[in-house]
Amino acid sequence: MTADITQITRRAREAARPLGRLDRQHKDRALEAIAAGLRDSATSLLGANEHDLTRSRETGLSAALQDRLRLTPERIEGLAQAVEEIIRLEDPIGRVVQGRTLPNGLRLSQVAVPLGVIGVIYEARPNVTVDIAALALKSGNAVILRGGSAAMATNEMLLNVIRDALRSADIPVDAVQTIDPLGREGATELMTTRGSVDVLIPRGGHELIQHVVNNSRVPVIETGEGNVHVYVDATADPRKAREIVVNAKTHRPSVCNAAETLLLHAQAEQAGKESLAALADAGVVLHLDQRAAQWMPTGSGVAESATEEHYRTEFLDLEMSVAVVDTIDEAISHIHRYSTGHTEAIVTDSASAADQFIAEVDAAAVIVNASTRFTDGGEFGLGAEVGISTQKTHARGPMGMAELTTTKWVVRGDGQTR
User: Fold this and answer.
1) Which residue stretches of the chain have pLDDT < 50?
2) Which one of 89, 185, 356, 387 has the fewest CB atoms closer than 10 angstroms to its CB?
C-alpha cells in the first residue's frame, strides 16, 4: 500500500476503537451537529453542487447521474431530516441478540458490535456521503469514503460539515475520511486493504459494482442494480394498477427502485390500456411486445418493439419495457429470467396470487399493491440507508444501522473448566 492509504486506514482503525465505546447520547450530539451544519451550510453546498453539475454537463455525465448528483434546498433539508431520524432510532450497539445459561452455569450472550472500519465506493451521489457517515457514526463504525470525481466539490464541503460536527462533539474526526483526492488509483488500492478495512460496500452502476466485487480482497457487501418489475394480475383494479405503475416508473426514474419492466396479464386489458396511456402521457418511451402494442392508444406517446436487450436493461430514465403474459407463472418465470433481485411488485385483488408471488419471487423486497419506490431505507423506517443489498449473506434489502453491525459472544463464568 502507498503511504497515503496506509495512513488513512491506520487513522480510521484508531478512530474506530473509541467510537465503538461511545454511548448513545454522545453519538446523538454529533448527529445533531451534522443536521444543523447541513442547514447552516445550505447556500455554500448549493454553490459547490452547481460547480459539479456544470462540470458534469461539460463531461457528458448521463442525465440519470446528473439527477443523483443534484442538490436542491429540499434535498438538503431531506438530508438533515434523515440524520434527525437516525437520532431518534435506538443505538444498535450492545443489543443482545440471544442469551442463555448452560447447565454448567456459564452465561452466554450474543451482542451486537460495530463492524469496525467500512469502505464505501460510490459515484455522483452526495446524499450517500451524509447517509453513510451518519449511519456509521450511530453504529460505532469508522468510514472511508470514495465519492467519485463528479461530486468532488460537493462531497468536500459535506465532509467538512461532518468533520466539524465530530470535532464539536469531541469525537475523532478521522472516524469519517475520504480518499477522493487519490482518484481511481486510491479506490483500487483501498480494495487491497484486507485486515485494515473490515468490509467494502460499492454503490453505483453495474460496471462499478462488478469492478469492486471482482477485484476486492476486502469482504464486499454487494448492493445491486435494479431491474425492477411490476406485474399487473388479472384481478387488478385498473385505477390502482395505473397509479402504482406510473409512480413506480416516473416518480424518480434515475434510482434503483424505479420500475423498468411492466408485465400485464392477458385478462387485465383495461388495467393495461389505462396504464399504458398514463405512462405515454407522462412521457415514458415504451418498448412493447406484440400483444402490448395492441393495447397502446392510437397516436399516444413514443412506442417501439421490445427486444431481449430491453428486458435486460436498467433504463434509469423515462423508458420501460412491456410484455403481456397468460399466467402468473409466466410472469414469475419472466422475472426469474431478467430480475436483478432488487424489488418486484404485484398488483392484484387475489390473496392466492399475492401469496404465490411472495413465495416464489426471489428478491430482496417483494411488494403487494404498492409502488416499488418504497424500497428505501428512509421509507422502511431505517432513517437512511447504506445501500440496498441484493446478496443473501449478512444483509439483504435496505441496509441501515443493524446491517453495519456484527456480533460477538460474551461468556461469563465462575471458575468453570472443561
Assistant:
1) none
2) 185
